[in-house]
Design goal:
5% strand
Length: 130
Amino acid sequence: MEDEKLGAILQELKKISESLAKPSPPPAPKGLWNEFKAFLGKGGVLSLAVGFIMGTFIGKVVSALVFDIIMPIPGALTPGGNWETATVNIAIGNGMHFAIGDFVANILNFLIVAVVVFFIVRYAAKLGIK
């Protein structure tokens, strides 16, 4: 009688173990086209491509905003007009030329782009886009 109970318990344990086991992976797709479709479906390859393309064009829009709309404002306010070409010359040896205007312009460009990207990400987060 106890052997029967023990056998029934072992059978139940075996069923539970089989139900908890990981399912076998689906068979690999056959044919080049099916393999390609499976590749696109894995790991978000298509999402990555869309993100890359959107990032490229958003980068172009942000660059246009910075260079075409915002950066001409300091140029209009400076006496010479093109402050990005300002240099500091030091007469040591053959002379040293420091492109201070270009350096400051790049810092301003970075800060403006960082602020614009911050606001885009902040707005996207409010919309629930990750």
